[in-house]
Design a protein that fits this description.
Blueprint: H1 12-27, H2 34-41, H3 45-48, H4 55-78, H5 84-101, H6 103-111, H7 120-144, H8 153-165, H9 167-172, H10 179-192
Length: about 200
């Protein structure tokens, strides 16, 4: 057993989190163990605890890294001087690219968050609810400004987020379009459904 091999711009802790996300995605959080993660990393289990306290800490780090990035992006988009429709498009492109390029982390955040321990579970749920409300708020502003057709904003948010979550099947597909084609197709379909 050796040392954790790091990639460019990544710390040992980053590599541990990345491999944990892969393992949690593959086996599920509950079925994954720290010994197994240590094996994947090529280190002794005891060495793993020098970098991370527990499996629950790993889930917390994965979920909140994704959630905090989502919050930062919506903060940025909300303050842009562009139409509401363009804001929704920018947000969708960010979400689609996250699901394409950071699939394991986003998948774990989306599916395994329910195993977070308190107070992190309540905090995460509140952040998730707030995020959805803020997206709905952008859509509602667009409806008021007559940039977006009159629809139920929370339903639109639900449909968009489920569509992005469905990119999971693109990852599993044997024959697939390119990531760029996927992004453009999704934007075309989802944005056209909002246009007045």
């Amino acid at each position: 057993m050796g040392k954790i091999v790091t990639k460019k711009n990544l710390t040992r802790k980053d590599v541990i989190i990345e491999k944990a996300a892969e393992l949690f995605k593959e086996k599920g959080y509950k079925a994954s163990g720290m010994r197994e993660l240590a094996e994947v990393l090529g280190i002794e289990a005891a060495s793993l605890y020098n970098h991370i306290k527990s499996k629950s800490e790993l889930l917390h780090l994965i979920c909140f890294e994704v959630a905090n990035k989502y919050t930062a992006v919506i903060d940025e988009i909300e303050h842009k001087d562009i139409s509401s429709l363009k804001k929704v498009e920018e947000l969708l492109r960010f979400l689609i690219n996250g699901m394409i390029n950071h699939y394991q982390q986003v998948y774990v955040c989306d599916r395994e968050w329910k195993y977070l321990e308190e107070p992190y579970l309540s905090n995460f749920q509140a952040q998730r609810r707030s995020y959805r409300k803020r997206i709905a708020g952008i859509i509602e502003q667009g409806i008021q400004k007559k940039e977006i057709k009159s629809i139920d904003a929370p339903t639109a948010v639900l449909i968009m987020l489920h569509a992005v979550s469905g990119i999971e099947s693109w990852h599993r597909s044997k024959q697939k379009i390119t990531a760029k084609e996927l992004e453009e197709n999704m934007i075309s379909i989802l944005i056209s459904g909002l246009k007045k």
